[in-house]
Amino acid sequence: MSFLLPTHYRIAYDSITRNRTRSFLTCLGIGIGVGAIILILSLMGSIQNLVSSQVASAGSDLIVVRPSQEKDTLDNVIDQLTSSNQYLKSNLSLKDVTAIKKIPGVAAAAPISKSSATISAERVNDAGDNYTTTISSASIIATNSDLIKTDRLTIASGSFINKGAQENTAIIGHDLSLALFGSTEPVGKTFTLYGHKFIVTGILSKINDPINFNSVDFDNSLLVNADYIKSLDENVQIQQINVKTETANSVPSIAEDISSTLSSSKSGDKNFSVAYGDQISHPANELLVVISGMLTIVAGVSLIVGGIGVMNIMLVSVAERTHEIGIRKAVGATSGNILLQFLFESLILSSLGGILGLILGYVAAFLVSVVTPFSPYIDFNILGITLATSVSIGIIFGIYPAAKAAHKNPIDSLRYYR
Amino acid sequence: MSPLENSNFLPYNIPNTSRVAESGVKVVKNRVIIQLDKICKRYGYGDATSYALQDFDLKVKQGEFIMIMGPSGCGKTTLLNIIGLLDKPSNGSYSLNKEPVNKISSRKLAKLRSHKIGFIFQDFNLISTLNVLDNVTLPLLYAGFGKIRREKQADEILNRFHLQPKEYYMPHQLSGGQKQRIAIARSLISEPEIILADEPTGNLDSRSAHIVMEELKAIHEEGNTIIMVTHNPSLTTYATRVIHMLDGHIDTDIKTVADKDLPVPVSVHFKKHKKSKGAKN
Question: Are A329 and B115 in contact (CB < 8 Å)?
Answer without folding.
Answer: no
